[in-house]
Structures are given as C-alpha cells and as structure tokens.
Amino acid sequence: MSEEFLSGTTGNPWESAHLALVEEAVRKAAASEIMPRFRQLAVHEIVEKNGPHDLVTVADRSAEEHLTASLTALLPGSVVVGEEAVHADPAVCEALRGDAPVWIVDPVDGTRQFVHGDPGFCTLVALARHGEVLASWTYAPALDEMAVAVRGHGARVDGTEIRSGAPEPGQVLQVAMSHPDFTTPQEKAALLALRAEGVHSRPCGSAGLEYLAVARGELDAIAFSWENAWDHAAGLLLVEEAGGTDLTLTGERFRVTGGNALPFTAARDAATARFVHQLLASGAQ
C-alpha cells in the first residue's frame, strides 16, 4: 500500500500527487501549530520530560496531533509513531515492526532551539513499512526549507537535487556528535575518540538539520548515541539518497526498529563512514 501511495501514474514518485500532499500536510502543521508559538511561548507551555535537556512544548504536542490526523487521512490503514505518543505510551513503538505503513513523526526536532528562539529546528516525517524507510520529509519552517527523499529516487531540497559528495583529500573532517556527558561510559569513550587528529568534533544541534547538512556535503559526518526512530528515520534516508551511508558500532546499518549497537555514524560517503566508525570502535574497546 505504501509503495503504491508514492507511485504516480508514470511510476516516478516525484510526479506523484501524494508526495506533494504529504509536503503540504507538513507545511500546514508547522504554519498552524508551530510558527505562531515561535518566540511566543509562555513559561507554562514548556515542560521538562526527562530533565532540563529534554523539553516538550505545547507546539510539539499540538503539531503531532495535527500530523497524526492529516497523515493517516492521506493513507488509510496507516499508523503514526510520534515522539510524544511514544513518551505517553512506549508500546506505540511496536507499530514499527507491524505490517501497516507507519508515519514516523518528530513534530519539533530541536525543541531546545525552538524554546530559545533559535531557528535551527525542524519537523521530521518518514514513511516506513516492515522496518524500511520509503520516503522522508525534513522541514525547517523558520528557514523555509523542505528536504524530501524517496528510496531509490534521490534527495531534493526545495525541488533541487542534492548530492553529498566526498570530503577533499587531507581536509579536517567536520563531525557533529552527541554530548558525551549524556551517555553510558562505553558510549562516552567511543565519542571521545572522535577528538582525534584530522577531526574537528562539536556537539550536535537538531538531528534533522545535522543530517541535512551531511546530505548537502556541508558536514562530513555525525555520531549519535541514541536510536529514537523519530530522530533518525528521515535524516538517514536523506543522507543515503544523497550518496552517503551509515554504520552502527558493530559495522551494521542502522535499523529504525531498534536494537542498534551504539554509537552509530552517518557520513557523506562510505570512506568517511568507515573512518569515523573505526574511531568509535577503537574508543569503545
């Protein structure tokens, strides 16, 4: 069902009206639920979920509700795995392993940036089935940029195809990573191995926008120590369709259904992914 949903009469998903309808649904959710609250949040509209670095706002919750209604209406029989729904009921994640098409939704990726009035946040939507991500939408409403990827058909930003390419030989690799202080001891050791010669590492911002930077070739790699599907599904497909790849700590590809060896990396080309993976693996030993 999900494959047919993406295919137009020509078999080219980029000519499918459904692809545009999903984009429209994402834009509408952002326009009605997120942007009116940007830099307008009251104190009582911001809540800590799991500490001061894990925030949720009224915009996150209302945008997810909006997307849940609009996306399931576009594809009858589909279900939604959203960040806020999973926080309320972890069993919602089981849908990722089921037979129904799944919309994986992060209504506001980069909530901390959103709360602080920083435009570096985005809305992430991916369509998956049987654990395979088929299409994704990464929308930065404050920057008015829309990135779309379709499995086997490439990646585009505002309609223009993007390719990640490879870093220039000998250049210092630019890598964004999870903050080591919020990890297990083994993950911390692995991430700290990225502070190596020839690598400039920094803390990551919005995961979705970091993935977009890799897909554009503006960032060489990212390394994350958590595996929430809503943070990674859209961006991993975007990077892959732009020419990049990903590797978990054991050298396998990342699975949105979970059970990944962490940390993992996504990089703009295979050689960079292997190099970053080797650093992570050496640090984890």
Total DSSP helices: 9
Roughly what percent helix? 25-40%
C-alpha end-to-end distance? 44 Å
Give me the Rg, rounded.
18 Å
Q: What is the CATH first-level class name of the largest domain?
A: Alpha Beta
Structure characteristics:
285 residues; alpha+beta; Fructose-1,6-Bisphosphatase, Chain A, domain 1; D-Maltodextrin-Binding Protein, domain 2; 2 domains; seven-stranded mixed β-sheet; five-stranded mixed β-sheet; 9 helices; globular
Secondary structure layout:
Blueprint: H1 2-6, H2 17-34, E1 46-48, E2 55-57, H3 58-74, E3 79-82, H4 83-88, E4 102-109, H5 111-115, E5 122-129, E6 132-140, E7 145-150, E8 154-157, E9 160-161, E10 173-177, H6 185-192, E11 199-203, H7 207-216, E12 221-224, H8 229-242, E13 245-247, E14 264-267, H9 270-284
Parallel strand pairs: 3-4, 10-11, 10-12
Antiparallel strand pairs: 1-2, 4-5, 5-6, 6-7, 7-8, 8-9, 12-14, 13-14
